[in-house]
Design goal:
By secondary structure, the chain is an alpha+beta fold. It has helices at about 10, 50-55, 55-60, 105-115, 125-130, 200-210, 215-225, 295-305, and strands at about 65, 70-75, 90-95, 95-100, 150-155, 170-175, 250, 255, 285-290, 310, 330-335, 355, 365, 370. About 15% of the residues lie in helices and about 15% in strands. The termini are far apart.
């Protein structure tokens, strides 16, 4: 086994398995909400234009809701908000279709069966790509460490320092969307759960196959608010509760009381929809967005548009800025929080909460949903 390496990317990207005896590797790095962020290898792009062209208009938007668009206050200054959620600014988004729930294991399996797509977590780590993000002179680890796998949430058996998120994340060889907790686990009885261990690149490949795309960060937040402009949560200003969404109850990350009925992911649609009829815009799994992550993007928008201006259909920057992952070549936005969210540590079930992650990294609490640019419904 390779000795403990100093780079977070080597662990979060899948280069270090658990230490002998099953213990997890400790990381002493800045907190990145519920999980470390890092990078892996590049992905494959799949397009099937013939399949998309053969679909009827109704088929293209099946399982989706039309969001008419409009203006809203993007961001938050709530006490639970992080600095990258400010300053609050006015944004207008045009109308769009969006999935009523996260992409499920059943839907992803259909995609894989038709295309033969192999997710990044199922591929051997490409050292030539990964070394670009390593400090110069970092030695190549043994090939046994570069085998396919992913990060799996593994609760510790005692209270731990919440600044050391590596104490509840374990690199697990063989973990992927088919085996969410690693070898021996399966999604056969979880086909209606959101697919996990999907990298941004995997989500984009699925979107191309489906003739859709990932939502922009602004579209996602507008949809998540469900028409409640300025509210703290997607259901209003009332606090989070076990009947509202799939989050962590109890003492994070040691004990989950399962008041909401779930330890990990929940079947999509298990909790009430928001005002737009969308499920799981809070909790369950983090959802990839199209935009690059920039911790300063809101300030930049106001500087460019001027105070009080309404920004129309904003998109992410050309270059990501993510201080939590300075060596990553790129960083993409995640929204919505996950089953790991808890107010004592990560209140990211709020619609304004943001996270950045390398596009070639997936974990056991990361999924996605899609939007469509199909014409609006007939009057």
């Amino acid at each position: 086994m390779v000795a403990r390496l100093t780079s977070l990317a080597l662990i979060a990207g899948g280069l270090l398995p658990p230490e002998p005896g099953g213990s997890t590797l400790s990381l002493e790095m800045p907190v990145a909400c519920c999980a470390p962020v890092a990078s892996r290898a590049s992905a494959i792009s799949i397009t099937t234009p013939e399949r998309i062209a053969s679909q009827t208009a109704a088929a293209r938007t099946e399982g989706m809701v039309w969001i008419p668009g409009g203006e809203f206050s993007m961001g938050s200054i709530d006490p639970l908000a992080r600095p990258d959620e400010a300053p609050v600014h006015r944004v207008h988004v045009d109308g769009f279709w969006i999935d009523t729930h996260e992409v499920t294991n059943a839907q992803f399996a259909e995609f894989v069966d038709e295309t033969g797509y192999v997710t990044i977590a199922e591929r051997k780590v490409d050292w030539q790509e990964l070394r670009k993000q390593m400090p110069e002179g970092t030695p190549k680890p043994d090939d046994a460490v570069l085998q396919p796998g992913s990060l799996v949430f593994t609760p510790p058996d005692r209270p731990v320092d919440l600044r050391r998120f590596g104490l509840w994340w374990t690199w697990t060889a063989g973990a992927n969307w088919r085996q969410p907790e690693g070898p021996g686990s399966s999604v056969e009885d979880r086909m209606d759960h959101p697919v996990v261990h999907v990298a941004w690149d995997d989500a984009v490949a699925f979107a191309e196959w489906a003739g859709k795309r990932l939502p922009t960060e602004a579209e996602w937040e507008f949809a998540a608010r469900g028409g409640l402009d300025g509210a703290v949560n997607s259901w209003g200003n009332e606090p989070v509760g076990a009947t509202r969404c799939n989050t962590w109850q109890g003492r994070f990350p040691v004990s989950n009381t399962k008041e909401d009925g779930f330890v990990r992911t929940a079947p999509v649609g298990s909790f009430p929809a928001n005002g737009y009829g969308l499920h799981d815009m809070a909790g369950n799994v983090w959802e990839w967005c199209e935009d690059r992550f920039d911790v300063y993007i809101y300030t930049q928008r106001i500087d460019e548009a001027g105070p009080g201006a309404v920004v129309r259909n904003p998109r992410g920057p050309e270059v990501a800025r993510d201080p939590r992952n300075p060596r990553a070549v790129d960083s993409r936005v995640q929204r919505g929080g996950s089953f790991l969210c808890n107010d004592s540590y990560c209140a990211s079930y709020r619609p304004s909460a943001r996270m950045g992650c390398a596009p070639d990294t997936g974990m056991s609490h990361v999924g996605f949903r899609l939007v469509s640019d199909a014409p609006p419904p007939a009057e």
